[in-house]
């Protein structure tokens, strides 16, 4: 059997937590837990309980993030103050048991998809694919508004070449710095870039709420690229940049101001990881 029946039930509770606290908030917690795990490893401590039970189960985005995303889509159908694509909101305000139960069901389904993808050995990131599949199903079944954002085309026309130059400079800077650091740290620490990126999103909730850039679609792919190419920094930067372009396009066309959440970073990670594994 490709799944653990206990974890199906456990994931139901975790999905409810996702609905309670919000997708971005729980993702930040995932980043924090990941950084702690890698710090313990660097200190020579093997964090078995923290890694297996907390990071890879309780805070696994395929479970807790999916719970938030689907619950938010349902909440948007009932409460006008909620936008279906905005997974930054806690849904506890509604005092609605249905929303919490939907989050729980999404958590369990997210876990089952993650377990199935891992079991069959699909050559990509199982967590990212689970999030993308749930997002697409959610859009097809729960959408009450726009299924895609046609305004994105006009946005890119207005921004012009300057926008892409700006994004490329930023992406290459992030990719180069992380690729070098992870290369020097060694294969055991290739995943810490993803955790740092997730944790850095906390600054989007500090002070006046100034947004910070999303970078985990870059750092996650860099870690994978280093692993499959034998530590080639140039290729890691290249594929990190490809992932970021996919993220930028999907964020505007498939997520922002749409009726439900389809996670653009997950699309970038899933597609680019697949390419890496197929090529190398």
Q: What is the secondary structure topology, with strand pairs?
A:
Elements: H1 5-21, H2 23-42, H3 48-58, H4 61-78, H5 97-120, H6 126-142, H7 151-185, H8 192-200, H9 216-228, H10 233-255, H11 264-279
Characterization of the model:
Helix content is 72%, strand content 0%. By secondary structure, the chain is mostly helical. The protein has one domain. The longest helix has 35 residues, at 151-185.
**End-to-end distance:** 30 Å
The ordered H/E elements are HHHHHHHHHHH
Instruction: Briefly note the structural class of the backbone.
Output: mainly alpha
β-sheet strand percentage: under 5%
The best one-word shape is: globular
Overall strand count:
0
The biggest beta sheet, please? none
Number of separate domains: 1
Determine the number of helices (DSSP H or I, runs of at least 4 residues): 11
Helix content: over 70%
**Spans where pLDDT lies below 50 across 5 or more residues:** none
Q: Taking all residues together, what is the mean pLDDT?
A: 93
| C-alpha-based Rg, rounded | 18 Å
């Amino acid at each position: 059997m490709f799944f653990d029946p206990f974890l199906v039930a456990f994931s139901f509770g975790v999905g409810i937590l996702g609905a309670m606290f919000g997708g971005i908030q729980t993702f930040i917690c995932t980043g924090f837990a990941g950084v702690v795990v890698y710090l313990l490893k660097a200190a020579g401590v093997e964090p078995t309980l923290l890694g297996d039970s907390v990071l890879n189960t309780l805070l696994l985005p395929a479970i807790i993030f999916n719970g938030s995303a689907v619950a938010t889509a349902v909440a948007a159908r009932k409460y006008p103050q909620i936008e279906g694509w905005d997974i930054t909101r806690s849904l506890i305000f509604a005092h609605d048991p249905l929303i919490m139960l939907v989050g729980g069901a999404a958590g369990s389904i997210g876990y089952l998809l993650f377990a199935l993808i891992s079991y069959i050995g699909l050559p990509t990131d199982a967590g990212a694919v689970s999030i993308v599949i749930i997002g697409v199903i959610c859009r097809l079944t729960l959408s009450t508004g726009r299924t895609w954002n046609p305004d994105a085309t006009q946005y890119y026309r207005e921004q012009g070449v300057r926008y892409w130059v700006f994004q490329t400079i930023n992406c290459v800077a992030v990719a180069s710095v992380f690729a070098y650091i992870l290369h020097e740290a060694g294969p055991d620490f290739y995943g810490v870039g993803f955790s740092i990126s997730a944790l850095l999103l906390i600054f989007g909730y500090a002070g006046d709420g100034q947004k910070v850039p999303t970078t985990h679609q870059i750092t996650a792919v860099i870690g994978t690229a280093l692993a499959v190419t034998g530590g080639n920094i140039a290729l890691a930067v290249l594929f990190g940049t490809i992932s970021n372009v996919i993220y930028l396009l999907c964020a505007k066309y498939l997520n922002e101001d749409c009726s439900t959440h389809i996670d653009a970073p997950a699309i970038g990670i899933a597609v680019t990881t697949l390419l890496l594994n197929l090529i190398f």
